[in-house]
Structures are given as structure tokens and as C-alpha cells.
Amino acid sequence: xxxxxxxxxxIKSNLLSMSRDFDYFAFLDNNHYPSAFSEFDFAxxxxxxxxxxxxSGHAFNDFQKIYQKHPGWWFGYFGYDLKNEIENLSSHxxxxxxxxxxxxxxxxxxxxxxxxxxxxxxxxxxxxxxxLRSTNPKIFEFSLRKQKIEQNMTREEYIESVxxxxxxxxHGDIYEINYCLENFMERVTINPQNLYYRLNEVSPxxxxxxxxxxxxxxxxxxxxxxxxxxxxxLTSQPIKGTISRSDSYVKDKQLAxxxxxxxxxxxxxxxxxxxxxxDLARCSVAGSVKVKELxxxxxxxxxxxxxxxxxxxxxxxxxxxxxxxxxxxMGSMTGAPKVEAMKLIEHYEKSKRGVYSGSxxxxxxxxxxxxxxxIRSVFYNSANKNLSFFSGGAITAKSEPxxxxxxxxxxxxxxxxxxxxx
Length: 422
Hints:
single chain, alpha+beta, globular, Anthranilate synthase, 11-stranded antiparallel β-sheet, about 30% helix
């Protein structure tokens, strides 16, 4: 089915509105960023003929078994606390959202759009095409009764913890750590579809996604790829380095150059690149791990980001769970050394990360996959009415604690605006 470029916006709108008809639904959108290297411009998964939902323990093994029994398209997420299954770690922090650590579903219907050509696989293709051609596209308007956004620590507590983490760095316990705080709203009612539509309008990102899995919702404006498999090629694109944009063209160019030259951001980025190289080496052919781009500067609506690209050739005979376990959680959201950093994260953070800093995406019928990093994302449980979004940054020996807090606020600016806050 060929569509005109002018029809894309209304088609996306109609597809998103269809999520209300399904208990399980996923919408993945690269927002036409050429740097995304995506297999499609957007993908939609509707309904669930198979699903798996479980806590950390035997999640990877259980998922591998059901995938082998029911191969095909699978959409879902890996939560951060699967770390406890991969390493000898634990999680005992408060959890407001109560999401499973792993949740995937095999959809009844998959829709893919590439270069204005839409392909539909599975059931109800004719019915879906009729809805796509609707002359009355759904209009999404988001409004929310003003309600205070809480934080699980004060500005002063965050800054004090950063100082303590810098002390760990100075004593040689770690080199770098990703430290996060949780923003949350309790007993709040939202329209998740409308929130995603508006968030994607003001902050379109190359790894944006909307997931509905019964009462669990992921509303993401992620700029970061965790890991992609295409044939035997693995690609990871960690982000480390952020600076706000300016409305002034000249000032904006200067800010991008400032980020590119920043010794602190380069040091942060390089440490994570080395960690990713080490992770990929565990599941790749010897000598195949390459840094394709180092310290690339990419511009998004609200920020400039420093992104590096690492590729490798996967070892033969590995299934996708082996590859994920070799590289998860992603280094950009933990630190280095990874295990020690995760122990300190558990000690100093105040809330269970859950899905945040995990990864959402898909696995295709041929075993290829593409997963983002779940940052710049809202998580909502429509059963207990709790909403959460996290923010954080990399702490190094050169970090200035108050600036780290300011960076947290910059990263969640678009989400705060959507929720009616400044």
C-alpha cells in the first residue's frame, strides 16, 4: 500500500487511536531521522496471540523457550532489574509502578512503513487499511488537571549524593556512574495515547515508542539506541554528553561546538565506549569490534547530544538472549566498572528503576532486533494510577554536583511541559 508523504501524519494518528481497541499494542517511530539506521520508518504491533510477563530470575530462559516455540515478530521490553538475573545483584528499593521485569508479546498484526510504503502482516489487514484511509483523522488533545510533580529526593539530597559518589571515584571504586532521580505523580488519571502524541510533537526522537500492555504504558521520546542486530552485525550507539539548545542560530552552533570540545563529556563518552566494546567482545568474533564514530554531535529539538557508534560481528550459534545478556544493562545507564557501579546505584538511588534505563523494541522473524534505551520516558500504571519518569547523568571525577542536577532538569523539560509544569 503506497501512501503520500502528506498522509503520513494522519495515518500515524489513526494508528495510535486504534490502540484503544487492543490490550497489547506497540508503536515504534524513528521520526525520519536518517541517523537512526532503522529497518522501517515506523512499525505498529496490534493484539497478542502469545505473551510472556515475568520477574527477574529465569526471565531470559523462559523468553527464549517461548520464542523458539512461537517464532515471528515479538515486541516488548527488558527492565533494568534483569541485571539481578545476569549478575549476582539484588533490588530492594520502593517500586511505585509494579511493572514486570520482562514483558513481550507476539502480535496478531504487524504494520511496517518504509519510504511511504505500508505492509501489513497477520489478521484484519483490510479492516486496518480502511481505518488508515479515514478522512477524519483522530485529533489528540492532552490536558491534565494541574498536580504537583514529586521527586524522590530534594535538590540538596541529589547534590550531596553526587559528592559522595565522587568520593567513591577518587578512592578508585569506580570511574563513572549514572546516577538518577525519580519524578512521580500519584493517583493521577491521564490519557496515555494523547500524552504520547503531544510528546512526540514537541520532542520527536529517533527511538520514540508507545507501548500499551494492559494497564502498563510506556510513553517514550528516546534519542538512544541500545543494540541493533542486522544479519551478523551488531550496532550500539551510547549517548554521553548533553547541552541545551538555543533559539539563536549562532549561539546554537556555538553550544554544539562547546559540547564537541568538552573534555569532561569526551571523557564520559570514551569510558562508556570502552565498556560497550568490552561487552560486545563477549558475544562477537575476535577483532571485529570497531568504533565507527567517536564523539558525534547530534541535534534534537531541545538538546545536542554526543553519540558514539560501535559495531561488531556476532559469534555464530548465539541466540538473541545470549547477546542481550552479554551487553545488558547498557553501559551508558550504569557506569564503569559496570557491576560495582550497579551496586552503588542500588545503594544511593531512592527508587527501583524498573523499566527506566531498560530497553524497548522488537525481534523480527529472522532473528534481527532493534532496542532503544528507555530514557526521556513516562511510565504509567492505569491500575494504581501512578506515573513516573526518571532523569540522571554520568558522574565522573570532573562532575560539578549542582550542574548534574541542572542536567537532570534539562533532560525532562519536554515531559514536564507536557504535564503542565515549567
